[in-house]
Known about the structure:
Blueprint: E1 3-9, H1 22-32, E2 36-41, H2 43-46, H3 51-60, E3 68-73, H4 81-90, E4 96-99, H5 101-104, H6 111-122, E5 127-130, H7 150-159, E6 163-167, H8 176-182, E7 186-190, H9 199-202, H10 206-213, E8 218-219, H11 229-237, H12 244-259
Parallel strand pairs: 1-2, 2-3, 3-4, 4-5, 5-6, 6-7, 7-8
Amino acid sequence: MRIDFHTYIGHWPFRQLRGNTPAGLIDYMRRFGIDQAVVSNLNGVFYKNTQPANEELAEAIKAFPGRFIPYAVINPTYPDWEYDLEVCHTKLGMRGLRIYPQYHDYKLTDPRLAKLLELARGASLPVAFSRWLVDDRQHSWMDIGGQLTLDDLVPVMKDNPGTFVLLNTTMAPLKDEHLAALRNVDVYFDTVYATACLPHASGYDVRRLVEVFGAGRFLFGSGYPFRDPVSALVRLEIVKEFDHSMMDAIWSGNALRLLAHTPRQAGR
Length: 268
């Protein structure tokens, strides 16, 4: 079984995306043997009120039962976001949250974010941060996004218990204080930038990181339709040091455990 933990539908204002509909994702999944995909709606990054984007997503994936696992986009600075989160969880079937402070214009120290993380923890909803949505070297001059670093994210995860997913991360520079903190945080890393080739250039030496954290921390992610999925698939397939159990964990086992809301013991 294969689960892609990092996909999207919706539009990107600064570039035409292809395959950015549920049908487009299904085509990608069929071509590359992906059984399920965790998906959110990019429109929620740009709508002032994110909830219509979550409603769009819930409606759009109805035609493909069992194939998509929806994650809601929540903006904790918008009025009555707490109600939106409850609706997403209890009525729309959302299984986690993706948040975008770079685009919704709030700091990671904002007390409203702390409240969101508290409510997410109470509802057993993992929270995903994205280092960026597009590479800073390729972004539009109108794109205000920027990137989140481990220096930004590690303190937030350390101070707010919960389950986290880091998307589009390169894990560099990985400082000693990051390692110490991340070992004791329930956090997973997607494999969009993971590689065993030229690891010093990529900043994401997946072999070393699995040695440090164990294979149970990693989730296959393609970043589709922003990125060509072949890159993520091939770079994972060529890691000869991983045995079958490790590969099975990265392809789907870790995702299934996370989706079952069974927290991993801290430090493992």
